[in-house]
Amino acid sequence: MTIHAPHATPPCILTIAGSDSGGGAGIQADLKAMTVLGGFGMSVITALTAQNGLGVTGIHAPDAEFVALQLTTVLDGFPVAGAKTGMLFSASIIEAVAKVLDARKNFPLVVDPVSVSQSGHRLLREDAVDALVRRMLPLADLLTPNRPEAEMLAGMDIATEVDAREAVRRILSMGPKAVLLKGGHFEGSGDLVDWLGLPPAPGGTGEPDIIPLTQPRVDTPNNHGTGCTLSAAIATCLGLGLELRPAVERAQRYLNLCLRESYTPGKGFGPPNHAAPATLREF
To answer: Fewer CB within a 10 Å sphere, N or C end of the chain?
Structure first.
Protein backbone atom coordinates (compact mmCIF):
# COMPACT_ATOMS: atom_id res chain seq x y z
CA MET A 1 0.00 0.00 0.00
CA THR A 2 1.28 3.45 -0.91
CA ILE A 3 0.59 6.28 1.52
CA HIS A 4 0.63 9.73 -0.02
CA ALA A 5 1.60 12.67 2.18
CA PRO A 6 -0.75 15.64 2.25
CA HIS A 7 0.26 18.62 0.14
CA ALA A 8 -0.95 21.38 2.45
CA THR A 9 1.95 23.35 3.96
CA PRO A 10 1.48 24.18 7.65
CA PRO A 11 1.90 27.82 8.70
CA CYS A 12 5.39 28.82 9.83
CA ILE A 13 5.42 29.60 13.56
CA LEU A 14 8.52 31.08 15.22
CA THR A 15 9.74 30.89 18.80
CA ILE A 16 12.38 33.32 20.06
CA ALA A 17 13.39 31.85 23.39
CA GLY A 18 15.87 29.90 25.47
CA SER A 19 16.74 26.24 25.18
CA ASP A 20 15.85 23.79 27.97
CA SER A 21 18.28 20.87 27.95
CA GLY A 22 15.70 18.89 29.95
CA GLY A 23 13.20 19.20 27.11
CA GLY A 24 10.21 20.31 29.16
CA ALA A 25 10.19 24.07 28.65
CA GLY A 26 11.63 26.75 26.38
CA ILE A 27 12.37 26.07 22.73
CA GLN A 28 11.79 22.35 23.11
CA ALA A 29 8.30 22.73 24.60
CA ASP A 30 7.42 25.40 22.04
CA LEU A 31 8.34 23.26 19.04
CA LYS A 32 6.39 20.27 20.40
CA ALA A 33 3.25 22.35 20.92
CA MET A 34 3.55 24.05 17.53
CA THR A 35 3.89 20.73 15.73
CA VAL A 36 0.98 19.02 17.46
CA LEU A 37 -1.30 22.00 16.81
CA GLY A 38 -0.51 22.07 13.10
CA GLY A 39 2.32 24.56 12.70
CA PHE A 40 5.82 24.31 11.25
CA GLY A 41 7.96 25.35 14.20
CA MET A 42 11.15 27.40 13.83
CA SER A 43 13.46 28.77 16.50
CA VAL A 44 15.75 31.64 17.37
CA ILE A 45 17.75 30.61 20.44
CA THR A 46 18.45 33.43 22.89
CA ALA A 47 20.17 31.37 25.59
CA LEU A 48 21.31 27.86 26.43
CA THR A 49 20.35 26.56 29.85
CA ALA A 50 21.77 23.60 31.72
CA GLN A 51 18.48 22.41 33.14
CA ASN A 52 16.43 19.43 34.27
CA GLY A 53 13.29 18.85 36.30
CA LEU A 54 15.13 19.83 39.48
CA GLY A 55 16.23 23.26 38.33
CA VAL A 56 18.61 25.40 36.28
CA THR A 57 22.33 24.96 36.94
CA GLY A 58 23.72 27.37 34.37
CA ILE A 59 22.98 29.79 31.53
CA HIS A 60 25.07 30.64 28.48
CA ALA A 61 23.83 33.32 26.08
CA PRO A 62 25.12 33.97 22.55
CA ASP A 63 26.09 37.45 21.40
CA ALA A 64 23.09 39.68 20.75
CA GLU A 65 24.32 40.15 17.16
CA PHE A 66 24.09 36.41 16.54
CA VAL A 67 20.56 36.28 17.98
CA ALA A 68 19.62 39.05 15.55
CA LEU A 69 21.28 37.13 12.71
CA GLN A 70 19.23 34.03 13.52
CA LEU A 71 16.05 36.11 13.46
CA THR A 72 16.89 37.94 10.25
CA THR A 73 17.84 34.70 8.51
CA VAL A 74 14.56 33.02 9.48
CA LEU A 75 12.53 36.01 8.34
CA ASP A 76 14.45 36.08 5.03
CA GLY A 77 13.66 32.42 4.36
CA PHE A 78 10.15 31.80 5.70
CA PRO A 79 6.72 33.49 5.64
CA VAL A 80 6.20 33.66 9.40
CA ALA A 81 2.50 33.46 10.27
CA GLY A 82 2.83 33.80 14.04
CA ALA A 83 5.55 34.12 16.65
CA LYS A 84 6.27 34.17 20.36
CA THR A 85 9.08 35.31 22.58
CA GLY A 86 10.05 33.59 25.79
CA MET A 87 13.32 33.86 27.71
CA LEU A 88 15.18 36.91 26.34
CA PHE A 89 17.71 37.09 29.20
CA SER A 90 19.54 40.38 28.65
CA ALA A 91 18.94 43.99 27.65
CA SER A 92 21.28 43.66 24.67
CA ILE A 93 19.38 40.64 23.31
CA ILE A 94 16.05 42.40 23.83
CA GLU A 95 17.32 45.46 21.96
CA ALA A 96 18.65 43.32 19.09
CA VAL A 97 15.42 41.32 18.74
CA ALA A 98 13.22 44.41 18.99
CA LYS A 99 15.25 46.25 16.36
CA VAL A 100 14.65 43.47 13.83
CA LEU A 101 10.98 43.11 14.75
CA ASP A 102 10.44 46.87 14.48
CA ALA A 103 11.41 46.66 10.82
CA ARG A 104 10.13 43.21 9.88
CA LYS A 105 7.14 42.24 12.04
CA ASN A 106 4.05 41.58 9.91
CA PHE A 107 2.62 38.72 11.99
CA PRO A 108 0.95 38.37 15.40
CA LEU A 109 3.45 38.25 18.27
CA VAL A 110 2.85 36.70 21.68
CA VAL A 111 5.29 37.96 24.33
CA ASP A 112 5.77 35.71 27.36
CA PRO A 113 7.72 37.93 29.81
CA VAL A 114 9.74 35.06 31.26
CA SER A 115 11.71 36.27 34.29
CA VAL A 116 12.18 33.43 36.80
CA SER A 117 12.20 29.66 36.33
CA GLN A 118 9.88 27.38 38.28
CA SER A 119 12.85 26.44 40.48
CA GLY A 120 13.57 30.10 41.26
CA HIS A 121 16.50 30.70 38.88
CA ARG A 122 16.47 34.16 37.32
CA LEU A 123 16.00 33.97 33.52
CA LEU A 124 15.82 37.72 32.90
CA ARG A 125 18.59 39.92 34.22
CA GLU A 126 17.40 42.65 36.56
CA ASP A 127 18.86 45.33 34.30
CA ALA A 128 16.82 43.94 31.38
CA VAL A 129 13.37 44.62 32.85
CA ASP A 130 13.33 48.21 31.58
CA ALA A 131 14.29 47.06 28.08
CA LEU A 132 11.53 44.45 28.17
CA VAL A 133 8.92 47.04 29.12
CA ARG A 134 10.18 49.72 26.76
CA ARG A 135 10.98 47.61 23.69
CA MET A 136 8.95 44.38 23.76
CA LEU A 137 5.62 45.27 25.35
CA PRO A 138 4.66 47.75 22.58
CA LEU A 139 5.37 45.03 19.99
CA ALA A 140 3.12 42.46 21.70
CA ASP A 141 -0.21 41.55 20.20
CA LEU A 142 -0.65 39.56 23.40
CA LEU A 143 1.40 39.62 26.62
CA THR A 144 1.09 36.51 28.82
CA PRO A 145 2.43 37.20 32.34
CA ASN A 146 1.93 34.84 35.25
CA ARG A 147 1.16 36.27 38.70
CA PRO A 148 4.77 37.12 39.75
CA GLU A 149 5.52 38.62 36.34
CA ALA A 150 2.33 40.68 36.40
CA GLU A 151 3.17 41.90 39.90
CA MET A 152 6.62 42.94 38.70
CA LEU A 153 5.26 44.78 35.66
CA ALA A 154 2.26 46.39 37.38
CA GLY A 155 4.18 47.28 40.56
CA MET A 156 1.56 45.84 42.89
CA ASP A 157 0.55 42.71 44.77
CA ILE A 158 -2.18 40.63 43.14
CA ALA A 159 -4.34 38.60 45.49
CA THR A 160 -7.97 39.18 44.44
CA GLU A 161 -10.08 39.57 41.33
CA VAL A 162 -10.06 43.33 41.88
CA ASP A 163 -6.25 43.26 42.01
CA ALA A 164 -6.07 41.17 38.84
CA ARG A 165 -8.28 43.59 36.93
CA GLU A 166 -6.24 46.59 38.09
CA ALA A 167 -2.97 44.88 37.16
CA VAL A 168 -4.29 44.13 33.68
CA ARG A 169 -5.30 47.77 33.27
CA ARG A 170 -1.85 48.96 34.32
CA ILE A 171 -0.05 46.57 32.01
CA LEU A 172 -2.29 47.45 29.04
CA SER A 173 -1.27 51.07 29.53
CA MET A 174 2.35 50.03 28.85
CA GLY A 175 1.61 49.28 25.21
CA PRO A 176 0.64 45.64 24.51
CA LYS A 177 -2.50 45.24 22.42
CA ALA A 178 -3.86 42.63 24.85
CA VAL A 179 -2.88 40.96 28.13
CA LEU A 180 -3.54 37.46 29.42
CA LEU A 181 -2.89 37.32 33.18
CA LYS A 182 -2.48 33.61 33.86
CA GLY A 183 -4.06 32.16 36.98
CA GLY A 184 -1.85 29.17 37.63
CA HIS A 185 0.00 30.81 40.53
CA PHE A 186 -3.18 31.69 42.42
CA GLU A 187 -4.11 29.33 45.23
CA GLY A 188 -7.45 27.59 45.40
CA SER A 189 -9.23 24.33 44.72
CA GLY A 190 -11.79 25.58 42.23
CA ASP A 191 -11.49 26.28 38.55
CA LEU A 192 -8.46 28.17 37.27
CA VAL A 193 -9.16 31.64 35.89
CA ASP A 194 -7.02 33.52 33.36
CA TRP A 195 -7.85 37.19 32.82
CA LEU A 196 -7.90 38.38 29.19
CA GLY A 197 -7.61 42.15 28.93
CA LEU A 198 -8.50 43.87 25.68
CA PRO A 199 -8.13 47.59 24.94
CA PRO A 200 -11.20 49.85 25.07
CA ALA A 201 -13.54 49.39 22.13
CA PRO A 202 -14.01 52.37 19.81
CA GLY A 203 -17.00 54.38 20.95
CA GLY A 204 -17.17 52.49 24.24
CA THR A 205 -16.72 53.57 27.83
CA GLY A 206 -12.96 53.99 27.52
CA GLU A 207 -12.38 51.12 29.94
CA PRO A 208 -10.57 47.93 28.92
CA ASP A 209 -12.65 44.82 28.44
CA ILE A 210 -11.36 42.27 30.99
CA ILE A 211 -12.76 38.79 30.45
CA PRO A 212 -12.40 35.85 32.88
CA LEU A 213 -11.56 32.65 31.00
CA THR A 214 -12.05 29.51 33.08
CA GLN A 215 -10.50 26.06 32.83
CA PRO A 216 -10.69 23.07 35.22
CA ARG A 217 -7.74 23.08 37.61
CA VAL A 218 -5.49 20.03 37.10
CA ASP A 219 -3.87 18.62 40.23
CA THR A 220 -0.44 17.56 38.98
CA PRO A 221 3.17 18.35 39.94
CA ASN A 222 4.13 18.02 36.27
CA ASN A 223 3.78 21.66 35.29
CA HIS A 224 7.30 22.41 34.05
CA GLY A 225 6.97 24.52 30.90
CA THR A 226 3.27 25.33 31.13
CA GLY A 227 3.76 29.03 30.35
CA CYS A 228 5.98 28.25 27.38
CA THR A 229 3.49 25.72 26.09
CA LEU A 230 0.52 28.09 26.40
CA SER A 231 2.21 31.01 24.63
CA ALA A 232 3.47 28.73 21.85
CA ALA A 233 -0.01 27.27 21.44
CA ILE A 234 -1.58 30.74 21.23
CA ALA A 235 0.99 31.85 18.63
CA THR A 236 0.24 28.74 16.59
CA CYS A 237 -3.51 29.26 16.76
CA LEU A 238 -3.09 32.88 15.69
CA GLY A 239 -0.87 31.72 12.83
CA LEU A 240 -3.62 29.31 11.79
CA GLY A 241 -5.93 32.30 11.38
CA LEU A 242 -7.96 32.33 14.60
CA GLU A 243 -8.97 35.61 16.19
CA LEU A 244 -7.38 36.42 19.54
CA ARG A 245 -9.99 35.16 22.00
CA PRO A 246 -10.69 31.88 20.14
CA ALA A 247 -6.93 31.36 19.81
CA VAL A 248 -6.45 31.82 23.55
CA GLU A 249 -9.35 29.52 24.41
CA ARG A 250 -8.17 26.77 22.07
CA ALA A 251 -4.66 27.02 23.51
CA GLN A 252 -6.08 26.81 27.04
CA ARG A 253 -7.97 23.63 26.16
CA TYR A 254 -4.83 22.14 24.62
CA LEU A 255 -2.71 22.90 27.69
CA ASN A 256 -5.40 21.56 30.01
CA LEU A 257 -5.44 18.28 28.11
CA CYS A 258 -1.63 18.12 28.16
CA LEU A 259 -1.62 18.63 31.93
CA ARG A 260 -4.25 15.94 32.46
CA GLU A 261 -2.02 13.52 30.53
CA SER A 262 1.29 14.76 32.03
CA TYR A 263 4.08 12.45 33.15
CA THR A 264 7.47 12.45 34.91
CA PRO A 265 10.26 11.35 32.54
CA GLY A 266 13.07 12.02 35.04
CA LYS A 267 13.81 13.52 38.44
CA GLY A 268 11.85 16.50 39.70
CA PHE A 269 8.95 18.20 37.95
CA GLY A 270 7.78 16.69 34.69
CA PRO A 271 6.25 18.50 31.71
CA PRO A 272 2.78 18.54 30.21
CA ASN A 273 2.31 15.79 27.66
CA HIS A 274 2.54 17.87 24.50
CA ALA A 275 1.55 14.90 22.34
CA ALA A 276 -1.64 14.19 24.29
CA PRO A 277 -4.05 15.00 21.42
CA ALA A 278 -2.14 12.61 19.16
CA THR A 279 -1.63 9.81 21.68
CA LEU A 280 -5.33 9.76 22.55
CA ARG A 281 -6.26 9.39 18.89
CA GLU A 282 -6.46 6.02 17.10
CA PHE A 283 -4.02 5.59 14.23
So the answer is: N
